[in-house]
Amino acid sequence: MATVLEIVRGLSQAAANAHDGAFDQDGKAIEVGLMREKGNPLIDKRVMDGFNIRFMGPNLCISYMSEIQLKEVYKKGFEGEMEQRLADIAKFLKKEYKKVTGDSVSLKKTGEIDVRVESSSRIRSWVTAYQLYEIGGMKDVMVMEAGGDPVEKSWRDFLDLGGWKGKRPKNDTRKKESKK
Questions:
Q1: Residue 53, in any domain of the structure
Q2: Cβ distance 125 to 118 under 8 Å?
Q3: Sign of torsion, CA 153 155 156 157?
């Protein structure tokens, strides 16, 4: 059984092995399932896309970013296509994790996909998609809840006294502000 640190290191290394232009031991280009892998890079327009991973307690958040045309967004099945792309990335991460560590890891999809399309002009648009996966074997992770007062005690005391407009001390000899 792998520790939490070993799982995090293995998944981080698996994601790092997917950089653009990466080759495996046989000299073949690594295919993750991204749009940039399709076509001939010498004669086709290069597609800028990639993915990122973040660890959120016992969950892995995979985010996918790509340049896209609006006609692709309005095409039927766009959200399903993004979901499939994230599933391909998760499949690659599991396969690469097995190569890196020798162990297997399970990634179980949790929740729905979050797809966001933004445009900067009528020509340029980009998509960002997020999906959460529960990492198998991460039972020892404590999820810390944000709580308490985010304001320090000294600032809280200052604000309770009235802040900048509060009661002035006896040794304050400045002229009083005129109220208009």
A1: yes
A2: yes
A3: positive
Count Cβ neighbours within 10 Å for each residue of 147-159 and write b for 16 or more, e otherwise: eeeeeeeeeeeee
Percent of the chain with pLDDT over 70: 79
Find out whether 87 and 80 touch, Cβ atoms under 8 Å.
Answer: no
Alpha-carbon distance of 41 to 48, in angstroms, equals 12
Alpha-carbon distance 122 to 103, whole Å?
47
Look at residue 172 and tell me if it is in a domain.
no
Q: Who's near 112: CB < 8 A, 6+ residues apart?
A: none
Residue 143's domain spans which residues?
4-163
Residue 112 has pLDDT above 90, yes or no: yes
Domain count, the chain: 1
Query: Does residue 71 lie in a domain region?
Result: yes
Q: How confident is the model at residue 131 (pLDDT cuts 50, 70, 90)?
A: very high
CA distance 96 to 75: 32
CB distance 126 to 67 below 8 Å? yes
